[in-house]
């Protein structure tokens, strides 16, 4: 992997990168072209004080960017971004190692380098630690997030010149142990079953999702609340963008399913209503009706449940389903779930016109 300096001739490529990926932990999570053009024009990506680098892997793919700024100061700062489909593969920590090498080998002999992130950005915090950075500050309610009109805690990580030269870290001793540092394990965002590729959602999946839902809407509307609204490409794109953001933040882990032989998209299955403290997950899934009757969803569910127990150290995986949804119930039973109870008239039906009996299935360790 390497850092390749960005040039103004690559303006459109940079804008495309910034507008087609999701940035759920940044102040501006969906930057527009006009804003980016203005920032580029004003030297926000290349000047005497700022340099931007592409992060390229060994296959010459541009997996991210890192911008280092305040280069005329003794303590530069940086902004690191990895593209959606390359997250979870360790590129962030490797890019930080390359960046620290660049900074500390500058002729000005910089004293230290610093980065900031939201306290709940587990992936970025792991990248800091793996690259040898040390947590140096925890600022309560210091990170304003305009999209939600709320404040989050902010954390700062740094590396000193002395630690870089010695190849060591000098930790700051803290009494606190943040929940996000120890509760969410690392895991790969793509795996396979015998016939399926199961991977994290990407923004360019929107047309596949739209086509599958459009074909399946009569069936989906019987059992799912989200299918009650009119479907548009724009609405689908927004849904996919939200799904990507929730996957990155580990709020929900919705996997897209593809046939290995043909690459066709066939549906979604994933883990929702996550409680990381007790490792409890709720299973949800839907299948393009074009692919019903071939055992694909049972195969996907078995693989995802195994992933939950093996990789996420799940203690419990639940499945909630309308008592009348026989196909949905059959998948859960074939995947080894046990019926724990039937909650009578406990929730509105998908269309909101009736009350349904909800079957509660579960698997435990």
Main sheet properties: 8 strands, mixed
CATH class of the largest domain: Alpha Beta
Number of domains: 2
How far is the first residue's CA from the last residue's CA?
39 Å
Briefly note the CATH topology name of the largest domain. Aminopeptidase
From the coordinates shown, what is the CATH architecture of the largest domain?
3-Layer(aba) Sandwich
* Order of secondary-structure elements: EHHEEEHEHEEHHEEHHEEEHEHEE
What is the arithmetic mean of pLDDT? Answer: 91
**Regions with little confidence, pLDDT below 50 for 5+ residues:** none
Keywords: Transferase
Pfam family, one: Acetyltransf_3
Organism: Sporosarcina newyorkensis
Protein name: Protein N-acetyltransferase, RimJ/RimL family
Task: Give the secondary structure arrangement, pairings included.
Layout: E1 2-5, H1 11-20, H2 33-41, E2 50-56, E3 62-69, E4 77-82, H3 91-104, E5 112-118, H4 122-130, E6 134-145, E7 150-160, H5 161-166, H6 179-183, E8 190-192, E9 196-199, H7 206-223, H8 233-248, E10 253-259, E11 265-275, E12 280-287, H9 296-311, E13 316-322, H10 326-334, E14 338-348, E15 355-364
Helix pairs in contact: 1-2, 3-4, 7-8
Question: What does this molecule look like?
Answer:
The protein is an alpha+beta fold. It has two domains: 181 residues, Gcn5-related N-acetyltransferase (GNAT) (Aminopeptidase, 3-Layer(aba) Sandwich), CATH 3.40.630.30; 175 residues, 3-Layer(aba) Sandwich (Aminopeptidase), CATH 3.40.630.30. The protein contains ten helices and 15 strands. The strands form three sheets. Strands 8-9-10-11-12-13-15-14 form an eight-stranded mixed beta sheet, sandwiched between helices. Helix 9 links the parallel strand 12 and strand 13. It is elongated, with a radius of gyration of 23 Å. The mean pLDDT is 91. Pfam families: Acetyltransf_3 (PF13302). This is Protein N-acetyltransferase, RimJ/RimL family. InterPro entries: Acyl_CoA_acyltransferase, GNAT_dom, Ribosomal_N-acetyltransferase. Keywords: Transferase. GO terms for molecular function: protein N-terminal-serine acetyltransferase activity; protein-N-terminal-alanine acetyltransferase activity.
């Amino acid at each position: 992997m390497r850092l390749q300096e960005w040039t103004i001739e690559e303006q459109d490529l940079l804008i495309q990168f910034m507008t087609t990926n999701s940035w759920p932990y940044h102040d501006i999570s969906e930057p527009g072209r006009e804003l980016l053009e203005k920032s580029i024009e004003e030297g926000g990506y290349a000047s005497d004080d700022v340099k931007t680098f592409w992060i390229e892997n060994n296959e010459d793919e541009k997996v991210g960017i890192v911008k280092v700024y305040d280069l005329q100061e003794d303590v530069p700062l940086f902004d690191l971004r990895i593209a959606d489909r390359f997250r979870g593969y360790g590129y962030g920590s490797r890019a930080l190692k390359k960046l620290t090498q660049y900074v500390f080998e500058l002729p000005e002999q910089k004293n230290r380098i610093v980065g900031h992130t939201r306290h709940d950005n587990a992936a970025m915090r792991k990248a800091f630690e793996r690259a040898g950075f040390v947590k140096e500050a925890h600022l309560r309610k210091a990170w304003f997030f305009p999209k939600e009109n709320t404040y989050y805690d902010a954390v700062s990580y740094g590396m000193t010149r002395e630690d870089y030269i010695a190849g060591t870290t000098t930790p700051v001793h803290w009494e606190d142990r943040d929940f996000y540092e120890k509760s969410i394990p690392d895991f790969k965002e793509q795996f396979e079953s015998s016939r399926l590729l199961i991977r994290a959602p990407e923004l360019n999946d929107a047309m596949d999702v739209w086509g599958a839902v459009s074909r399946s809407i009569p069936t989906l509307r019987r059992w799912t609340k989200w299918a009650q609204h009119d479907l548009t490409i724009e609405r689908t794109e927004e849904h996919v963008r939200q799904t990507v953001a929730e996957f990155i933040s580990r709020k929900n882990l919705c996997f897209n399913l593809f046939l290995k032989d043909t690459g066709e998209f066939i549906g979604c299955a994933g883990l929702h209503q996550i409680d990381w403290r007790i490792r409890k997950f709720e299973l949800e899934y839907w299948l393009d009706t074009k692919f019903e009757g071939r055992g694909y969803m049972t195969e996907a569910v078995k693989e995802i449940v195994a992933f939950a127990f093996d990789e996420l150290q799940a203690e419990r995986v639940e499945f909630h389903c309308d008592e009348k949804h026989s196909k949905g119930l059959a998948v859960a039973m074939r995947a080894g779930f046990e019926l724990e109870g039937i909650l009578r008239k406990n929730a509105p039906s998908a269309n909101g016109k009736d009350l349904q009996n909800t079957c509660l299935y579960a698997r435990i360790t």
